[in-house]
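To whoever is on call:

I kicked off a structure prediction for a single chain this morning and the downstream step that reads the tokens threw a length-mismatch warning. I double-checked the sequence; it's 283 residues and nothing unusual in it as far as I can see. Pasting both halves so you can look.
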Amino acid sequence: MRRRPSLLGRLLRVLVVLALTLLAILASAVVFFPFERLAPVLSGWIEAETRIATSIGELDAGFSARGPVLEARGIQLRWPTGEQLALDSLQVSPALSLAWLRGVPTLRAAANAEFGAFDGVVSSERIQGDFTRFDFAALPPAWFGDAGSPLAGAVDAKVAFARLAEQWSGSAQIEGADGSLALPGSPVAIPYEALKANLRLDEVGMLHVESVALSGPMVEAKAHGEVAAGYAGPATGAIAIEADLTRMDPALLPVLAEYGVVLDARGAGRLTISGTPEQIVIR
């Protein structure tokens, strides 16, 4: 005798059919909904919330392995102070996170631009992911003050930051090749072939430079130290960094001598970096 399905079995079958039906309806809505009409609305909402003038060239939606995905292309951002930034594309989808239960939307984001790319998880209290081929020198120069970006050349970085009580803390591991480094006030930028750095920002806004290794045709050095919080925010206060140089191009020795730094004939020695990010002192 054929057994009749149990009540639970029949209920599960109904729920599965209902879920597949709703999914089909949602898929049809995604395919046929005129998302391009939402681009001006979304641009206006971003500008109202951030005071950043925003233009979105194209807006589309679809499904992926991560679930529903919203993609914007041809994004232009303009700050009230005049700085401009362009993003080739930005994809966002819901991230699996318990933060949703606390009312904190958490998104998986993938961005591509001329200055680099990002793939990770973002929310109002969390930033975690990977930056690739990121070039600080391609960002608006005004963001770095009169001296401009101290770092030129693409770097990759793995970041993990969280916000607690309005204060961000976390860590970053940075690697780069074929770039240059210029300290504020320095008359020359030092080219490098390899750069590695491990940084950590603590809960009181102090930046711990746990390790920096720089090597290139003109210099080979390692450094560590701290940058305290200042009136302008995290890592804007007093600097206390020590650097050990194992090799320095002789052509740079007179430049360092102007700062009172004396190295041996091979360009080896130790120097200290103090002052503030606005006015660095090398000894």
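Update from on-call: the warning came from a stale cache, not from the record. Cleared it. Sanity check on the structure: The chain is about 15% helix and 50% strand.
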